Amino acid sequence: MRTLSLALLLLMSWLAVPVLAQTSQPSPDAVLLQAQQKEVQGKFPDAEKLYQQAIQQAGSSPLAAEAQLRLAAMYMRKMDRFDDALKIYEGLIKQYRTGEIAAEATLRIGELYELRMQKTTDEKERNNLEQKALEAYRRVENEFRGTAVAKGEGKQRLDAILRRIDERNRNHPAYRFWDILVALTGRQPWLSYWVAIVLFTLIVMALLTPLRLAWFRSFREMKKLEPEVRRLRERYKGQELNEKIMELYKQHKVNPAAGCLPMLIQMPILIYLYYTIRMYEYQFSKGFFLWINPYLAERFPGIVGANLGQHDLPLLLLYAISLYITQRLTPVSDPAQAEQMKMMSLFMTVFMLYMMYTWHFPSAFVLYWLLSNILMTVQQLHYMKPEPEAAAPADAVATPPEPAPAAASSNPGKNHHTRKPRRRK
How far apart are CA 107 and CA 99, in angstroms? Predict the structure, then answer.
């Protein structure tokens, strides 16, 4: 009996060891609380160890994500270990992709770049870091629009950095130009900003119209020379054919490259326009256009933009349709290239749609391009009408032949159809 009691005592002691060990180890919540206390006390190495311990104990739970966010914030704000903090934030974004944790990590990346910007005196580096911070805040707005982070601190930080950039750009000539266009209609949110874009589009089209008209005239002349070009294709091949065609164009004063000049001139205008709209973005965020307004943006988050400074999917789809129509209506001088141009138009439309959707182009820029496509299409339909055929001159009109006179008899004196009158005696 004594032996049995001793055995039971040993068994109970053996079973109690894991329980005692488990109760002696603090929970992840308690470790996280201790880490925060050490951080407040300024004992950052001790706080770092406790944060890492809490992360290991919490595993893949949201508590581990909270510990990682706090550790990265300590690295960033109190220890100037920006690279370590950035690595943690990027890992959280990759792990969670969507939701509050990913939005928080993205927001803190923007804050990290702003803190780094404050610690450098190089103007070029400061501008680069400011742009990276702005991109992070825009990403919070575009990709995590429905989260509390985006609606709260994310919106505040984005407005603050845009306001700071806006104040710095007020003396720029491009900023002043846009400001004059907006002021023409009294800076009304529902009117002035999209009207300014329309006015700018009309100005650009007026500047490009002479070049486009020159191309239309050149294309018409090339259409007239198509029969001669076909005859040259039948007689010559290779380089000799190209030389003969160029001689023909030169003889008739036709420039086959006339259509490239408006496109080459328009590309720098588009790049500069995008740059100036980004410069004026804080002001464009005060303007609305038809369905682009805060009311519909709340009901269709991620689809409808709240203002002209934000991305808008319906406007982008309208732009893609207008681009395809404009490309398809562009005349082709060589019929053999018609099928190739058809595929090129489709590829160009899909490529531009993907690029502008991925980069979240502001609605103000997309609206300009949509209006530009519409005006170019109207120009093409007007100037590329077939020329009416010249009316034939009056004296060239065929007159019906007059009836031929009856053939006279070979012996008119003996015409049996006519009788001479008899004389009376």
Answer: 12
